[in-house]
């Protein structure tokens, strides 16, 4: 079956120069953007149940912009005034610069890694090993941060501040696509929650990353396109190749 309409389970690109738009024009395909998941803050009550005091800490580790947003929104809800002496350690410069949305940016109190990987931020944390670190996290996370901080004997507290939930479809929303693209196992979970009677038939499913690929197969669905690969390091490159092959006359 030819691909005429694709649903990408991510927010619409902010730039008009997105490769998705190039693909749409190149093959005459309609591409819609609609996240299957959304991130929401814990309530103040849920946060308090973890019995963590923000002001007992002298530094915060941020691994995403979501973490920054939900840290400061919870502080506001809890009426916690973050002291100017608080230090911030971020996994990338992009995340570090995002802090400016909430506090005055000073290099002496904002630190970031070079590659976006947490392991590359650890040396900066070790240099400031007298700090008491707070690590805002999602309800779904792995133990990489805990393992590395424990290994380096860093005082820290991990605390859940936000969660990933299904972004439910309304009855008015059309769902008539030839192809669906997913980027996380949570997206697959949302698909099955929204459409418990989902019958894949000829609908092609593509995904990014091995964890998402596993989720597709675990849900009993057929995986038609998996990225990244050597030939297609990005989802858009993989999609371009897939549509070109599928839409051959």
UniProtKB/TrEMBL annotation:
Q: Where is the Tetrapyrrole biosynthesis uroporphyrinogen III synthase domain?
A: 24-236
**GO biological-process terms attached to the record:** uroporphyrinogen III biosynthetic process
Name of the protein in question? Uroporphyrinogen-III synthase
A GO cellular component annotated for this chain's UniProt record is: cytosol
Signal peptide positions are: none
> CDD domains of this UniProt entry?
HemD
Q: What is the lineage of its organism?
A: Bacteria, Pseudomonadati, Bacteroidota, Bacteroidia, Bacteroidales
Molecular-function annotations in GO: uroporphyrinogen-III synthase activity
Under InterPro entries, the record lists: 4pyrrol_syn_uPrphyn_synt_sf, 4pyrrol_synth_uPrphyn_synth, UROS/Hem4
**Pfam family of the protein (one):** HEM4
């Amino acid at each position: 079956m030819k691909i005429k309409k694709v649903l990408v389970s991510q927010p619409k690109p902010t730039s008009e120069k997105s490769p998705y738009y190039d693909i749409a024009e190149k093959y005459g395909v309609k591409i819609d953007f609609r996240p299957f998941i959304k991130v929401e803050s814990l309530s103040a009550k849920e946060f308090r149940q973890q019995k963590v005091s923000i002001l007992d800490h002298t530094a915060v580790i941020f691994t995403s912009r979501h973490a920054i947003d939900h840290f400061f929104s919870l502080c506001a809800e809890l009426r916690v005034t973050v002291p100017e002496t608080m230090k911030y350690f971020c996994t990338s410069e992009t995340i570090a610069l995002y802090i400016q949305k909430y506090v005055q940016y000073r290099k002496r109190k904002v630190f970031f890694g070079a590659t976006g990987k947490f392991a590359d931020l650890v040396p900066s944390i070790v240099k400031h090993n007298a700090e008491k670190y707070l690590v805002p996290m999602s309800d779904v996370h792995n133990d990489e941060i805990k393992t590395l901080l424990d290994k380096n004997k860093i005082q820290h507290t991990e605390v859940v501040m936000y969660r990933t939930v299904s972004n439910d479809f309304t009855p008015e929303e059309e769902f008539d696509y030839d192809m669906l693209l997913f980027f996380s196992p949570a997206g697959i979970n949302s698909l099955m929650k929204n459409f418990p009677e989902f019958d894949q038939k000829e609908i092609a499913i593509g995904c990014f990353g091995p964890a998402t690929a596993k989720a597709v197969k675990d849900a009993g669905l057929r995986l038609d396109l998996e990225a990244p690969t050597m030939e297609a390091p990005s989802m858009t490159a993989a999609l371009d190749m897939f549509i070109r092959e599928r839409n051959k006359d």
